[in-house]
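User: I'm preparing a small set of examples for a lab meeting where we compare how different chains pack in three dimensions. I only have the primary sequence for this one, and I'd like the structure in token form so I can line it up with the others. Please keep the answer compact; I'll paste it straight into my notes.
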Amino acid sequence: MRRNRTPRPPRRPKNDAEAQFFDAASAAGWEAWKRGWPDFFLVRGGEIAVVEVKPETDAALSRQQRTVLFALASYGVPCYVWRPLRGFVRIRPRVPPAPVPDPPFARWLPDLEVEVDED
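Assistant: Understood. Below is the structure token output for the 119-residue chain.
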């Protein structure tokens, strides 16, 4: 039986710009993750989905992958694991979908200048 373990805290990036952003997000109470992202981000028309590909039927998701996939699924993003012999398995959120904050960055990084590309 697997125990529900809390994922390790996110690591601070080595790149100076990423580290600066990580520090600001962390200071505002966010967990900033770079690891565990799905292998594919799919876009078709107005649809999106994410897919983590596993080569074998017994290859497990890492803790970071589970954390990211369940978080994305809880916001309504269709999340799947795909294996060549089994096909797609949908990741279902453990909790009801969370409301999406608006505006996303202005509240937690007040010193951040946001430039919008209107092209």
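A couple of notes for your slides: Residues 105 and 117 are 16 Å apart (CA to CA). The mean pLDDT is 80.

User: Perfect, thanks.
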